[in-house]
Amino acid sequence: MTGQLSMHCRRDQFIGLVCVVLLSVNTLADQKTTDPIQLVEMFTTTERPIAEIGANGSGRNRQGLDILVVEIDGIQAVEHNLSLDLSADPKRSKQVALQRLQQMDEEARSRLQLTAMGLTKTMRYGVDRTPAVVFDGKTVVYGVTDLTVALEHYEAWQRRRRPK
Q1: pTM here?
Q2: 33: Cβ–Cβ under 8 A, 6 or more apart, which residues?
Q3: How do the residues of the chain divide into helix, strand and coil, expressed in percent and rounded to 5?
Q4: Coil, helix or strand for 74?
C-alpha cells in the first residue's frame, strides 16, 4: 500500500512539475509577443524593390528597428557579369571568371555576401517566396514590399493572437 501511495505521489508531483513548466513557457511566450520588434529582415528581388527604405540597405529606420534588406537574386546578377563574353574554351573561361571575381570592388563583394547570407536565412526561416518580411526571425509577412504595410499586418496578427 505504501509503495502505491508513493508512486501516486511521485506521479502527482511529476504532473505538477510539468504543469508549472508549461505555465512558465506560456507566460514567457505571452511576454514575448508583447516585446517590441528588434530586427526586420526584408527579402525581395530586383523586380520588386522595397518601397519604404530602398533596396540593398541596412541600418535603423525611423521607428528604431534594425532593418536588413536583401535582394536574393543578387547572385544571378553577379553570375551574369562574370559570364559576359566568356570564351568557349572552359579553361580560359574559368581563368577570366576568376580574374573578374578577384577584381570585384568592395561594394559588389558586400552585395554578394549579403545575398548569400540572405539566401541562407530564407532557408533557415522556411521562407519559400518573395517578397517576405521576417520579424525577429520568427514571423513572416509575405507579398509586401512596404515596411509600414508589413508592420500593420504583423501588429494586426499580434492583436488577434493575444487573449482579451
Answers
A1: 0.65
A2: 158, 161, 162
A3: 55, 15, 30
A4: helix
